[in-house]
Amino acid sequence: MGAEHSIKTGDIAGFERYLAQLEGFYFDNKLGLAESTVMYPLIGLNLLRMLSENLIADFHTSLERIDLGQLQNNQFIVHPVKLEQALMEGSYKKVWQARAEVPTPEYLFFMDILMSTIRNEVASCVEKSYTSLPFSDAKSVLFFSSLDELLKFANEHRWTVSPSEKRITFPSAAENPRQFQGENIMKQSLLYAQELERIV
């Protein structure tokens, strides 16, 4: 099937096109055709695609078209629904654990995209919150299973890696100065106050 082939070849746009065509049969079945065995796995994959692309409004619109019984009991639908709940809670560890619980191997394609997005978000927060982290902590907080993956990620982000100290150092505030313009703010505030006095 075209949608499954698109996943195997990493063609997200192609997958989207195939699903748009199939949704007419899945949700507007006026001919009374029997449900396809791949209907819910593909709908679940599409929900996961929306999450991986941060299309939360589209995700919820799609959920409204799915039967309540399927929402609560169908493993292919329950998986992305639980993922979305974990994302809304900020429970990235649950998202990471859900990768090991995918209902079908095809789900791993979008799970990896989602994890990459989460990793980059966490990395952005970590480098602003810490000056450095030990390898073990960085590996844990960024959800890496191996040190090699962590070191590759660190190099891509241009973090300083110290193998002897087993530590990653993030760019310091001195390298990325954010000057506080206190004097300018005070001058501006005084000007506003003077202008207000004139008006009154």
Automatic annotation (TrEMBL):
PROSITE patterns in the cross-refs: PCI
Single GO BP term: proteasome-mediated ubiquitin-dependent protein catabolic process
Keyword tags: Proteasome
A GO term from the CC aspect: cytosol
Domain of life according to the entry: Eukaryota
Residue ranges annotated for the PCI domain, each copy included: 10-200
Family: Belongs to the proteasome subunit S14 family.
Name by which UniProt lists this protein: Regulatory particle non-ATPase
Organism this protein belongs to: Coemansia erecta
Gene: RPN12
